[in-house]
Amino acid sequence: MTAGSAEVTRTRNTERFAHVVAVGVGLVFVGAWMWAFVAPRSSFASAAAFEPYNAHIVRDLGAFQLGLGAVLLLVVAAIVRARLVQA
Questions:
Q1: What's the predicted TM-score (pTM) here?
Q2: Domain regions of the chain by residue span
Q3: 3-class secondary structure, 12
């Protein structure tokens, strides 16, 4: 194995790791959104145990997390798609 091919392998492994992390975090954000929308009281009790309880704020934060998760998942999908088109 040459030094150049070792560098390419290391770069590919780093990119794969970054994609896996981005997908994992994106799924966590989407899951948090679902939790905030389905059970806002439970979500509030676990994440923000202060008064007064406000379902509207919990749902707003869930919607924000949905946006973050969707962007992460879409970026990874676009990168993977671009790589497949190049190949």
A1: 0.75
A2: 3-86
A3: helix
